[in-house]
Design a protein that fits this description.
alpha/beta, seven-stranded antiparallel sheet, five-stranded parallel sheet, 25 helices, 19% strand, flat
Length: 753
């Protein structure tokens, strides 16, 4: 994706075309880090923010004063256990704690205030143990409390009435200076975190507390955890706020997320952009790949899960690493938090068994990892210690015996010394002491002296062996896994993350801030609430510099004949009307017409069919016939979470048959447009197959970028755009939009709230 050399344009010339949409600005430091563009309130051409504010959550996670509203020490009451945990937590973080209850003089021997107004000082954090937090929120606002946590459930996750109640809660907080976590959240933010662990930490964001437990438990394996944000329904504070905050924390090495739905797609992408600028990896489990998962997730937190293909593309676009299982989340987040940047992307598989090595090498190659063949000189060196009949090209098979003596360390050092090697993966399918004990000790010692990544897959189901629990888990330099699959997933993510961030340029820096000259002309063509005719849709494309065929709109057979002469035979004739979506199925397209007689007959037949089908026409299009090329589709749709999205794929009849397409969320640069094409299964068609010449892929990318500009400038007013087919001609000859459909959003209801 980065450092691409597609086509004939240089990187600088491609960059110049993208930067024409808006200039990049350097800016001030935030939280001691540089690189933010100036003016964090900048808006793009459609009025949406381009940069994420970073909320100051220091007093949330490390408050000096805490109030518990509804505190209790009565045995058997649910609030008592919560109060007890909060008392212990406040002691650990050094916060002054104030119980609040109208009928109690003290709680757990602490003096109790009867109301928020009676609290002796300004409160940093108020924890609401009440069933209806709304009245209390008003008191907190009056008292200028900084943060609140609302545990109560029964809000958006329960349906329409609950969503209305949640909106009232959000409205009470909005703009007040009080920031609120929840409702429908839990105590995870106040868990005890080990303070005896060092090194980069994992910060955790979850919308289901139970789903964060596996990552929290990593502390038992020596992995540091710095924060846990259980966001719940996100009436106010949302995942994006914590993502932005964690990205600025110097102790955070990776951010792990369990996401069921997003409150606002744009906010999430702005936060992911901030993390990418800071080179902080974000690893996420996002529920909703299936209809069942999406429905269940929506019922849990009351948020939109989004179309999964769009969510997947958007995360990939901004460097968020999506994994499926919580075990993958554990392993991938741990590796990315703790491993140094790669020195090379080559992977070597090293084992004591040829079968094991071949199996893991096969899986690694299938996972997209590069396994370079070691040089003849390196192989000769390895054969000093490994029998000559064993293969050491990669994978490296040592036969077993060398790991039991001094040769084992020599072999590992030689592999790590190879400049093409960045990762050594050693699968240990089961313990075989004393050889396995010596092997892992050599691997740990070598890793301590190397700047290369050493990974060990410990395959024992017990996991109680000293070699595993004491030696491997005792090392901060060896990445230890329990399954080969998780190891390969994590290594691929680690290499991919560093490739991504090393050349990352934020698309928000390059987003247009002012309308182009095309915008005003395009607005004049829009018809709110209507589908444009093909002719009008093509005029819209033409305003943005997208090429359409020579054509004329006519209303008589005689005019059709004259138009054909001007356009040039052979011609295509098509019925044109605002309510025609699928002309071919209705017989409203005639191709390959080569004479005036054929044109007259075609005109009469098209108008007769339209009358029979009761289709209203604004005329008949007489079009230039474009025969040879690759049929593609480029379009715009609106996603509930992310707004306008741009799609490119194989076009014509292949759209519905193969469903081979790629999607991006604007804004994006030209590199991302090229990446969209690389994702297509039918990408080879553009390179020329079975003797056909290569297509003009540069022109196709140009169309994608121009369509993106339309989507950004026209915003939600352009509900849908479908260019199908876009005929991509031979290299150097451009691309032509042969058909187009555009749907305009209905006018806003002035009576709507």
């Amino acid at each position: 994706m980065l450092g691409s050399t597609h086509g004939t344009l240089t990187t600088d010339s491609r960059r110049a075309r993208v930067l024409a949409c808006g200039e990049q600005r350097p800016g001030p430091a935030v939280h001691g880090r540089t690189g933010d563009p100036a003016g964090t309130d900048d808006l793009d051409v459609s009025g949406r923010p381009l940069y994420a504010d970073v909320p100051d959550l220091d007093r949330f996670f490390r408050p000096e004063s805490v109030a518990i509203i509804g505190a209790s020490d009565a045995e058997g009451r649910p609030n008592t256990g919560i109060t007890r945990q909060l008392v212990r937590w406040a002691e650990r973080v050094g916060a002054r704690l104030y119980p609040v209850h109208p009928a109690r003089a003290s709680v757990f021997s602490l003096p109790c205030s009867r109301s928020v107004a009676e609290l002796p000082e300004r409160i940093d954090l108020a924890v609401l143990l009440v069933s209806d937090p709304l009245p209390v929120v008003a008191e907190l606002v009056e008292a200028k409390v900084r943060f609140a946590v609302a545990f109560a459930s029964g809000f958006a996750e329960t349906g329409t009435d609950g969503a209305a109640a949640q909106e009232r809660l959000a409205a009470a907080v909005r703009g007040s200076g009080l920031r609120m976590l929840g409702p429908n959240t839990n105590l995870n933010a106040f868990e005890p975190f080990r303070d005896d662990l060092d090194g980069p930490a994992i910060a955790l964001i979850t919308q289901s507390g139970h789903q964060g437990r596996p990552v929290y438990a990593l502390q038992e394996l020596g992995v540091r955890l710095s924060h846990w944000a259980p966001t719940g329904n996100e009436a106010d504070l949302e995942s994006a706020d914590f993502l932005s905050y964690f990205a600025e924390r110097p102790e955070v090495g990776a951010i792990a997320c369990y996401v069921e739905g997003l409150k606002d797609g744009r906010s999430f992408l702005l936060a992911a952009d901030r993390a990418a600028r800071r080179k902080v990896p974000v690893i996420a489990v996002k529920v909703g790949r299936t209809e069942t998962g999406a429905r269940t997730a929506a019922s849990h937190t009351g948020k939109l899960t989004g179309a999964d293909a769009v969510v997947d593309a958007a995360m990939r676009q901004f460097g968020v690493i999506r994994v499926d299982g919580l075990d993958e989340l554990q392993d991938t987040a741990t590796l990315l938090a703790r491993a140094r940047p790669p020195r090379a992307d080559g992977v070597v598989v090293y084992s004591i068994s040829g079968g094991t090595g071949a199996h893991v090498a096969d899986l690694a190659t299938a996972a997209g990892l590069r396994l370079p063949e070691l040089s003849e000189a390196r192989q000769a060196e390895l054969h000093q210690w490994i029998p000559p009949y064993l293969s050491v090209a990669n994978p490296v098979d040592n036969g077993g015996h060398p790991v039991g003596d001094w040769r084992g360390r020599k072999i590992i050092d030689a592999i790590l010394a190879d400049p093409s090697v960045g990762v050594l993966i050693c699968p240990v399918t089961g313990p075989f002491p004393p050889l396995s004990d010596r092997l892992v000790r050599d691997l740990v010692d070598a890793a301590e002296e190397s700047d290369k990544l050493v990974c060990v897959v410990w395959g024992s189901p017990a996991g109680t062996e000293p070699a595993y629990r004491e030696v491997l888990l005792g090392s901060s330099r060896v990445a230890t896994f329990r399954t080969v699959g998780n190891c390969l997933t994590a290594v691929r993510a680690w290499l991919g993350h560093h490739r991504f961030v090393d050349g990352y340029r934020s698309p928000f820096d390059e987003a247009p801030r002012t309308p182009s000259p095309s915008y005003r002309k395009a607005r004049e063509l829009m018809r709110p609430g209507q589908q444009l005719s093909e002719h009008a849709a093509k005029q819209l494309l033409r305003t943005y510099g997208i090429r359409v065929p020579r054509e004329q709109l006519v209303t008589s057979a005689a005019a059709a004949v004259r138009a054909a002469g001007l356009v040039g035979y052979p011609v295509v004739m098509k019925a044109s009307g605002a309510r025609i979506a699928h002309k071919t199925e209705l017989g409203l397209v005639k191709v390959g017409l080569t004479s005036a007689a054929q044109v007259r007959d075609a005109y009469r037949e098209l108008t007769d069919i339209a009358r029979y089908e009761e289709v209203e026409l604004d005329g008949v299009l007489v079009c230039q016939m474009v025969e040879r090329g690759v049929e593609m589709v480029v379009g715009v749709t609106h996603d509930d979470l992310f707004g306008p999205t741009v799609t490119v794929g194989l076009g014509g009849v292949l759209v519905e048959v193969l469903r081979d397409s790629a999607v991006r969320v604007p804004p994006f640069g030209e590199e991302q447009a090229w990446d969209m094409l690389a994702e297509l299964r039918g990408r080879a068609l553009l390179d020329g197959v079975r003797g056909r010449p290569p297509a003009d892929v540069d022109a196709l990318v140009e169309v994608v970028l121009r369509v993106q500009r339309m989507a950004l400038e026209l915003g939600a007013d352009l509900a849908e755009l479908d260019i199908n087919p876009l005929m991509v001609l031979e290299r150097g000859q451009g691309a032509v939009a042969l058909d187009a459909l555009a749907v305009c959003r209905p006018p806003a209801d002035p009576a709507a709230p």
